[in-house]
Amino acid sequence: MFISTSLEQYRSRNCKIRNACKTLIRLDDHMKNNWLGIVDIVRNGYSRTQRSDRIPSLLIQEDPLILARDDTEKPEALSEYFSKVFSIGNGERQTIHCNCSGSLMDPAVIEKGTVLRLLQHLKPDKSSGPDDIHPRFMKAISDIIAELLATLFDIFLSILFYLFEH
Known about the structure:
two-stranded antiparallel ribbon, about 170 residues, 2 domains, mainly alpha, 6 helices, about 5% strand
C-alpha cells in the first residue's frame, strides 16, 4: 500500500514537472519568433488600449510555477525583470585604482554615442552572433541599451587595462 502511494505521488510530481518544462520550452520558442511584441512594449510603453496578443505568458516564479497571463501583469513582470538585471548604482560598482603614470598608452573611453552609432548600423539580415541575439532586435532597441553597453565596455576595458599594467 505504501509503495503504490509513493509511486503515484512520484508519477504525479514527475508529470507536473514535465508539463511545466514543456510549457516553458513552448513559451521560449514562441518568444524567439515574436520578439517584436517585447520591443513594442519597451519602446512605446503600455497603455490600456494596446493588446498584447503577440506576447505569451511570462514566467514570474518557478517554484511554484506562476505565469503572467494578464495584460496588466506582463508589463509589470517585464519591468521588474529589467530593473533587477540592469540596475547598478554607483555605490555598487567596483572602483579600480591604478598608478598609470608609467603607461605607454591612454585608457580607452567608450561613449554612449559611439555604441549607439554602431548598434544603429548593424545589418539586420545577418545571422545571430554567439550570444544568440538577432541583429534586428539589437538595432530595434539600440537607443535603450546603448548606455548600458557603453558602461559594460568601459568597465571591461578598465579591468583589462589594470591587468596589463600590473
